[in-house]
Specification:
The protein has one domain. Helices cover about 60% and strands about 0% of the residues. It has twelve helices and two strands. It has a two-stranded antiparallel ribbon with strand order 1-2. The longest helix has 29 residues. It is globular. The N and C termini lie far apart (about 50 Å).
Amino acid sequence: MSRGALRIGGALLTGALAAASARAAYAGLNARPPGGRQAWTRTNHRGEPVTLLEGPAAAAAGAATALIAPGLPARARAALAVAGAGGAAFGGYDDLKGSSARRGFRGHLGALARGEVTSGAVKMAGIGLTGLAAAALVGEAGVGGDGAGGAPAADLLINAGLAAGGANLLNLFDLRPGRAIKVALAAGAALGVASPEGALAAAAPGGAALAMLPEDLGERAMLGDAGANALGGMLGAAAAGTLPRKARIAVLAAITGLTAASEVVSFTRVIDRTPPLRWLDMLGRRPAAAGAAPGAVPSTGGTDGAGEVNVPGRDEPGADRGARACGFVAGRRPAVSLFILPPTTTHVL
């Protein structure tokens, strides 16, 4: 059997293990939520609760599975785990301690310049350091080599940008049911198409994300910053360890461009106005709440520069901040349609 076939088999095994671990972690966290259930509960626009425990479950499963993934060099396994653990830790801190007073890079850096340290600024610094640590562990050889040795300074910065930037960017898509997970699965699939090594490296975060998709689409849970930062960071680290330099530079440029655009452009509005993207975004989701007119924005929070509704009590960077709770309904399992559904309203917690 070829080396590539063995890596694909290893990727399937890793993904299955990560998925099973994520489901087990989610069940355990729901049974005994750390700090009490209320700490992880938010209220959506329907007036019903939604849990953030999906995020820690996916992050823990992805990071833990990466540590024992077959076929990966030890340094590559460690890089994936560090990216996942760091993203979960700093994202979770922002989930629990963040506020909506400051938003986006400009908001947090402006507050810092005035001597105010926001939870978002702490998260930005922490995820940046996490990206550097993951990049140092990836080293020059990455998954395709023996994992030994350091990387040139340019590669270190590129790889750190991929891990940290991936963590932040996926978080910007966590605004509607299933959206961030769909983006994560698409990114993992792209890495798998690029090379068997990419499939192996993306298997742990991909499997954990896929396991949580029914909860997300079923509107019972959401990734939150902890889950989105962790999965995005792991996928960035996977790209750092498996793509050639030119491809990594191209991916980093795309991440940087999208992140900058999020400060002034609403991703949700772009998706809603682009039929193929809207179809993919709506795939598997519930239709709009009964009686809600298309485009209506039931809101209890303010709006940012791009017109997105901001979620009270949350503090995710970017112009899309806030419209995320998306009609999550806890305590019941509505039918999930796989047909094209009409555009939903912009939902808030």
